[in-house]
From TrEMBL, chain A:
Protein name (Swiss-Prot/TrEMBL): 4Fe-4S ferredoxin
UniProt key word Iron: yes
Superkingdom of origin: Bacteria
Residue span, 4Fe-4S ferredoxin-type domain: 4-34, 56-87, 88-117
Matching NCBIfam families: DsrO
Sorted UniProt keywords: 4Fe-4S, Iron, Iron-sulfur, Metal-binding
Chain segments annotated as coiled-coil in the UniProt record: none
InterPro entries: 4Fe4S_Fe-S-bd, 4Fe4S_Fe_S_CS, DsrO-like, ET_IronSulfur_Cluster-Binding
TrEMBL record, chain B:
InterPro entries (UniProt xref): Asp_de-COase-like_dom_sf (IPR009010), MoPterin_dinucl-bd_dom (IPR006657), Mopterin_OxRdtase (IPR006656), Mopterin_OxRdtase_4Fe-4S_dom (IPR006963), Prok_Mopterin_Oxidored (IPR050612), TAT_signal (IPR006311), TAT_signal_bac_arc (IPR019546)
Domain annotation 4Fe-4S Mo/W bis-MGD-type: ranges: 53-110
Highest taxon above the source species: Bacteria
Listed Pfam families: Molybdop_Fe4S4, Molybdopterin, Molydop_binding
Species name: Slackia equolifaciens
Name of the molecule in the record: Dehydrogenase
Record GO terms (molecular function): iron-sulfur cluster binding; metal ion binding; molybdopterin cofactor binding; oxidoreductase activity
Family listed: Belongs to the prokaryotic molybdopterin-containing oxidoreductase family.
Keywords: Iron, Iron-sulfur, Metal-binding, Oxidoreductase, Signal
C-alpha cells in the first residue's frame, strides 16, 4: 500500500506563509478561504510571542488537513463524499457533498473551509493548476495533499515552495523512504494524538 | 464612507474616488466604458476551461535583495500561475509569498490606468485622465524648458531601488542629476567600507551558502529570515552543520526566535557592543597578532602630535591612489613591505617627530570603552559581551552579519560600521572560508560580484551631472533643482520628516512621477505616467539581471495592462520628442543585446538567443562552490590592507571609533518626558518598502499595518489590541491600529515601514520621523544617513 504523508521540521519553519500562498495559487482557492494556515503557537496573533520580554519563545505550526488514518471527518459524512483514497489521502467528492458541514464540526484540526457564497476570486478568474476541480457554493473543501500533483509524481506545492526546506513528502508505508526515516530519527509527533485520528502529517523540531 | 467594509483605518481607495470631487474618470478610469473596475474588465465572457496554457520564464522585479527566476503560466492572456523556475544551482530555485501573490497584485485596482494631469493643488490628489500624446508632449516641453532656463542639472531623477530600468539614457542625454538616495540604509558602510575598501557595506565578497563552514555567526540588527527570505534555508543548513547563531536585536524577531542565542540590545547602541567586544579581545589577547601585523594598519606609524600617518602616496594614471606606510622595525621606520615583523606597540622618534602605532592608539582609545561601559550602554550583561567576543575570536571561522536598515537608521551608524570593522580586522575572520563581515551578498554577491555587463553606448558628451548634495538637503538648502522626474514612491520612502518634504515639493517648477500603483508620491505630481509591472512589456523581452552566479532574462509574459507602458518605452518616446531619438535603441532586445556584448569571460557562452532557449536563466562560467573573496588578503584600500585608522575622519574625532549616542533616541534625552517611546519602522516579510500594501493575498494573512507595542507600555496608555492610536511628536502625527505584542521591547514601538497614507489616517509614518543629518556626513562615502529610527514619539488612543 501507499500512504502519503508530510513531515514538517518546525525549526525550519520561519512562519513566512509562503506555503499558504503557494497552496492558494495551486488550488484556485477563493478569497476568504485558506487550506493551509500557519499558526503562531500560544498566541492569538500572527508573529506574536509567548512569555514576557526578554524571556520569550515563538513557534510557528503550519496546519492543513492531517490526512488522518482514522479521519473524524469521514466517519460523520452522511453521503460518503469524504473518503480515504488508495494513496492514503483524505479526499472529497464535491459532487456528493451536500454542505451539511458535519465534517467541519468533527475535524479537531479545523482544517476544512466552506463555500458559504459563490466563490469570489481576486483576480476574478480561475488560476493555478487547471486540473484541480473548481468548487461551487455549498461545498466543503480542504487540502487534498495536492492530489493532482502527487498523482503526476510531483511533490505537493507547499513542499516545493517552502523557503526553509522544512517539509518532506513521501510514503509512510515505505520504511526506507526519507519521510519514514525522519519520523523515526527525529522523534516526530502528531497533533492531538489523544483524538485517535492518527494523522499522516508529522512534526518534529 | 463607501469603504465601510475595509479593515483599513481612515481613507480608502474607494473613499478617495468619492471625495476627489470628480467622477471616476479622475483616476484614469474613463476612456474605456467597460473598465469601471479591474474585475469587470477582467471578467470572462464565458468559461475558459479549454484554454491552452502558455509557459513563459522571467524574473521577479523587486528590491527585496533577492532575484527570483519565475515560471509563469498564461491562460487566455491572463497570468494563471507563478512558480519558481529551476536554477542550475538548484538551492536558489525558490520564490516567496510576495512573488507568488503577484498573480493578484498585477490586476490590483490601485493600478494607474492612464496618464493623469493634476487639476487641484499639489498634494491634493485631484487628477484627470489625459492621452499619452498630451502627457508626453507636456513632460517633454517641461523638461526642455528646465534645460533651456537652468541647464540639465536643474532636473533631478530620484529613483526607487525596486526598478531594473531607471531611464539611464534620458538622464545622461539631459545631463540631469539622479540618485537612489543612499541615506536611508547604507550608513554602516560609511565606517565598514573605509576599513575594507569594499563597496556598500561589505556586500558580496562571500556567499551565504558558505555558512556551512562557519562556526560562529553573529547577526546584528538584521532580521534575515524576513528580509532575506530566500536565504532562510542556508541559515538552517549552517545550524545543522554545527554553526552557532547569535541574533542581536531589540525586537524578538523571527530570526531571533530561530537563533541559538538572542541578545536583546538597547536600540541604536550597536557601536557600544562592538567597542565592548573589541576591548574584550584586546584585554584577553584574543587577537591574531601575526594577522594584524601582516594584513591591517595596526603597525602603521602615526604622529602623536597631529594624528597624521607616515606614508608615501602615489597616484596612478587612472586616478587610483595608493599609499605605502611606514612601520617600526625595532630600530627605525621603514616602508611596510620591507618589514616582515613590525613592532605593534610603542612610541618612537622618526626624523624628530614623535610617533606611535595605530595599535597603540587603539589600545589607548579603547580604555574609554570597557566591557563594563558597553554593558551599561547596551543593557547586555558584561559577561555576555565577553563571551560573545570570545566565541567570535576563538570559535572560528566567524561571520558578522549586519542588515540594511538596522543601526543604519540611527545617527551614529558610521561609528557602528567602523567599530564593527575592527572585529574581523583584529581576529582575521575575513578572506577565508566561512568568514565575512557586512551585509549578506544577496543577488549581487557570489562569484558574479565581479560580473561586467556591456552597455548601450552614448556619445561621450552625454553624462549625468554629479549629485550636488544629498536629496534631503535639497529640501532646505539652495540647489539647482527645479524639476523632478520621480521614479517610484521616493518622496515617502527616501525622506524623513514628510512635512519638510511637502514644503519643498510645493516650490518646484514641475514634478512628473512614473509608477505602477497609486502610491503617495503620485499625489504630489503634475503629470503621472502609468508604468506596467515587470511581467508586462511591449517588446519581446524586458531587462536582464546578473544574480547569484547566473544571468536572468525578463521575457514578456503579458501585454501591458490598461494604458500602461514600460519605463523603457516612456524614455524612448520622451527622447524622441527632445531630439535625442538617434541615440536610442529601438527596443529592449537591442538594449539587452548591447549589455550582453562584454569582454567578461564569464559570459562567453551567453547570447540572447541562448538565454531564451534556456528558459531565461543560465549559469555564468564560474568555478563550482561558494565564492570566498579576499583570499589573497589584498583589500581595495590605499594601502591594500584593512585600514582600521580612518585618517580622513581626523577633524571629527573618528579616526578610531569614538562612541556617540543616537541623536534623539538616547536613554536620558529630556525630550522623553514628552515623547517617551522610540519609533522603529522595521522590515517584514509581508512587504518590500512601500510595495505589497495593496496585495489582497498578503492582506489575507496580515490585513493592515499595525503599531506593535509591549504590554507594559500598552497598559500604561489604556490600549487594547485593535484600538486606533495616534503616534505623534513635534514633527507631526499619524494614526494606525495598535497590536500588543510581547515581542516588542518596552519603550520601543515598531511598525512595518513603507505604509501608505490611506492606511495610516491620511498622514504618513514619515510625518514623525527624524531627518537630522550629522555634520560629518559631508566627508562620509555615502553621505549622512537619515536617522528615521532615531525618533521619539508619544502614543495615545485616537
Amino acid at each position: 500500500m501507499t500512504r502519503y504523508g508530510i513531515a514538517i521540521d518546525l525549526h525550519r519553519c520561519t512562519g513566512c506563509h509562503t506555503c499558504t500562498i503557494a497552496c492558494k495559487i495551486q488550488n484556485n482557492i477563493p478569497m476568504g478561504l485558506l487550506w493551509n494556515r500557519v499558526i503562531t503557537e500560544g498566541s492569538d496573533m500572527v508573529d506574536g510571542a509567548v512569555g514576557e520580554y526578554p524571556n520569550l519563545t515563538r513557534r510557528y505550526v503550519p496546519v492543513a488537513c492531517q490526512h488522518c488514518e482514522n479521519p473524524a471527518c469521514m466517519r460523520v459524512c452522511p453521503t460518503g463524499a469524504t473518503y480515504k483514497d488508495d494513496k492514503g489521502r483524505v479526499e472529497i467528492d464535491y459532487d456528493k457533498c451536500i454542505g451539511c458541514r458535519m465534517c467541519m464540526a468533527a475535524c479537531p484540526y479545523n482544517a476544512r473551509v466552506f463555500n458559504w457564497n459563490e466563490p469570489h476570486r481576486e483576480p476574478d478568474f480561475d488560476y493555478g493548476d487547471k486540473t484541480v476541480p473548481v468548487r461551487s457554493k455549498g461545498v466543503a473543501e480542504k487540502c487534498t495533499l495536492c492530489k493532482e500533483r502527487t498523482d503526476r509524481g510531483e511533490e505537493p506545492r507547499c513542499v516545493v515552495a517552502c523557503m526553509g526546506r522544512a517539509r518532506t513528502f513521501g510514503d509512510l508505508d515505505d520504511p526506507n523512504s526519507e519521510i519514514s526515516k525522519l519520523i523515526a530519527e527525529r522523534h516526530a509527533y502528531v497533533l492531538l494524538e489523544e483524538q485517535g485520528t492518527k494523522p499522516q502529517v508529522h512534526y518534529f523540531e | 464612507m463607501s469603504g465601510a467594509t475595509s479593515p483599513h483605518a481612515g481613507m480608502t481607495r474607494r473613499n478617495f474616488l468619492k471625495t476627489a470631487g470628480v467622477a471616476a474618470g479622475a483616476l484614469g478610469l474613463a476612456g474605456a466604458a467597460s473598465m469601471t473596475t479591474t474585475n469587470n474588465w477582467l471578467a470572462p465572457a464565458e468559461a475558459h476551461a479549454e484554454a491552452e496554457d502558455q509557459v513563459i520564464y522571467t524574473f521577479h522585479q523587486t528590491n527585496c535583495g533577492n532575484r527570483c527566476s519565475l515560471k509563469c503560466t498564461v491562460r487566455d492572456g491572463r497570468m494563471a500561475n507563478i512558480e519558481s523556475n529551476t536554477w542550475e544551482e538548484d538551492q536558489y530555485s525558490i520564490c516567496c509569498l510576495k512573488g507568488l501573490s503577484e498573480i493578484q497584485r498585477i490586476y490590483s485596482p490601485d493600478r494607474i490606468q492612464t496618464p493623469l494631469k493634476r487639476v487641484g493643488e499639489r498634494g491634493e490628489g485631484k487628477f484627470e485622465s489625459i492621452s499619452w500624446e498630451e502627457a508626453f508632449d507636456t513632460v517633454a516641453q517641461k523638461l526642455q524648458e528646465s534645460v533651456d532656463k537652468y541647464g540639465g542639472s536643474s532636473i533631478l531623477f530620484p529613483y526607487s531601488s525596486g526598478l531594473v530600468y531607471e531611464m539611464p539614457l534620458l538622464r545622461k542625454l539631459l545631463g540631469a542629476q539622479a540618485i537612489c538616495e543612499s541615506g536611508i540604509d547604507m550608513a554602516q558602510g560609511n565606517g565598514l567600507d573605509q576599513t575594507t575598501g569594499d563597496a556598500t557595506m561589505g556586500k558580496g565578497p562571500y556567499e551565504v551558502t558558505d555558512w556551512v563552514n562557519t562556526k560562529t555567526l553573529i547577526m546584528v540588527g538584521v532580521n534575515l529570515l524576513e528580509s532575506g527570505m530566500t536565504d532562510a534555508r542556508f541559515m538552517f543548513d549552517a545550524q545543522e552543520a554545527g554553526c552557532n547563531v547569535t541574533v542581536v536585536d531589540p525586537i524578538f524577531t523571527s530570526t531571533a526566535s530561530k537563533a541559538d542565542t538572542w541578545v536583546p540590545i538597547e536600540p541604536g547602541t550597536d557601536a557600544a557592543l562592538y567597542l565592548g567586544m573589541v576591548s574584550a579581545i584586546l584585554d584577553n589577547e584574543w587577537y591574531d597578532e601575526e594577522y594584524i601585523k601582516a594584513h591591517t594598519s595596526c603597525p602603521f606609524l602615526v604622529s602623536t602630535a597631529d594624528g597624521s600617518m607616515l606614508k608615501e602616496t602615489s597616484t596612478a594614471e587612472d586616478g587610483t591612489e595608493t599609499a605605502t606606510h611606514y612601520v617600526w622595525d625595532g630600530s627605525r621606520a621603514r616602508l611596510m613591505d620591507e618589514v616582515a615583523d613590525p613592532i605593534l606597540e610603542g612610541t618612537f622618534e622618526v626624523d624628530g617627530v614623535e610617533c606611535t602605532t595605530v595599535f597603540s592608539l587603539l589600545k589607548e582609545n579603547q580604555k574609554n570603552y570597557t566591557t563594563a561601559w558597553a554593558s551599561e550602554v547596551t543593557t547586555i550583561p558584561e559577561d555576555q559581551i565577553i563571551e560573545l567576543a570570545r566565541k567570535y575570536a576563538q570559535e572560528t571561522p566567524s561571520f558578522l552579519l549586519i542588515g540594511y536598515g538596522g543601526n543604519d537608521k540611527y545617527s551614529n551608524a558610521d561609528i557602528a560600521g567602523h567599530a564593527m570593522s575592527l572585529l574581523p580586522s583584529l581576529t582575521g575572520n575575513i578572506g577565508k572560508p566561512g568568514c565575512g563581515a557586512g551585509v549578506r551578498g544577496n543577488h549581487y554577491g557570489c562569484h558574479s560580484l565581479t560580473a561586467k555587463l556591456g552597455a548601450w553606448a552614448l556619445p561621450a558628451e552625454f553624462v549625468e551631472t554629479p549629485l550636488e548634495m544629498q536629496t534631503p538637503l535639497m529640501r532646505t538648502n539652495p540647489s539647482s533643482v527645479h524639476t523632478v522626474f520621480n521614479l517610484g514612491n521616493t518622496f515617502v520612502q527616501h525622506l524623513g520628516n514628510y512635512n519638510t518634504t511637502k514644503e519643498w515639493l510645493k516650490t518646484l517648477d514641475f514634478i512628473v512621477t512614473s509608477d505602477i500603483y497609486y502610491c503617495d508620491s503620485v499625489a504630489w505630481s503634475d503629470i503621472v505616467l502609468p508604468v506596467c509591472t515587470g511581467f508586462e512589456t511591449r517588446d519581446e523581452c524586458g531587462m536582464i539581471q546578473v544574480s547569484k552566479n547566473h544571468i536572468l532574462l525578463q521575457m514578456k509574459v503579458l501585454d501591458p495592462l490598461f494604458e500602461s507602458k514600460t519605463d523603457f518605452e516612456i524614455e524612448h518616446e520622451l527622447c524622441g520628442r527632445l531630439g535625442f531619438g538617434e541615440y536610442m535603441p529601438e527596443s529592449t532586445v537591442d538594449y539587452v543585446k548591447a549589455q550582453l556584448t562584454t569582454d567578461d569571460q564569464a559570459f562567453k557562452n551567453v547570447t540572447y538567443e541562448k538565454l531564451k532557449e534556456n528558459n531565461s536563466i543560465m549559469r555564468l562560467d564560474y568555478p563550482d562552490g561558494p565564492y570566498v573573496g579576499h583570499t589573497d588578503q589584498v583589500y581595495k584600500t590605499k594601502s591594500g590592507r584593512l585600514e582600521i585608522y580612518h585618517e580622513g575622519m581626523l577633524g571629527y574625532n573618528q579616526e578610531l571609533p569614538n562612541y556617540e549616542s543616537p541623536i534623539e533616541a538616547y536613554a536620558d534625552n529630556p525630550l522623553k518626558e514628552k515623547y517617551p517611546l522610540q519609533f522603529v519602522q522595521a522590515r517584514r516579510r509581508y512587504r518590500v518598502h512601500t510595495q505589497w500594501w495593496n496585495s489582497e493575498w498578503v492582506n489575507q494573512i496580515v490585513p493592515y499595518p499595525t503599531l506593535e507595542i509591549n504590554p507594559t507600555d500598552a497598559e500604561a496608555r489604556g490600549l487594547q489590541s485593535g484600538d486606533t492610536v495616534r503616534i505623534f511628536n513635534d514633527r507631526g502625527e499619524f494614526s494606525v491600529t495598535c497590536l500588543i505584542n510581547n515581542a516588542a521591547r518596552p519603550g520601543q514601538v515598531y511598525m512595518c515601514e513603507g505604509t501608505w497614507c490611506r492606511d495610516t489616517g491620511g498622514a504618513s509614518y514619515q510625518d514623525v520621523t527624524n531627518d537630522t543629518l550629522i555634520e560629518r556626513g559631508k566627508v562620509l562615502p555615502y553621505g549622512a544617513n537619515i536617522p528615521m529610527y532615531d525618533t521619539l514619539v508619544q502614543v495615545e488612543k485616537a
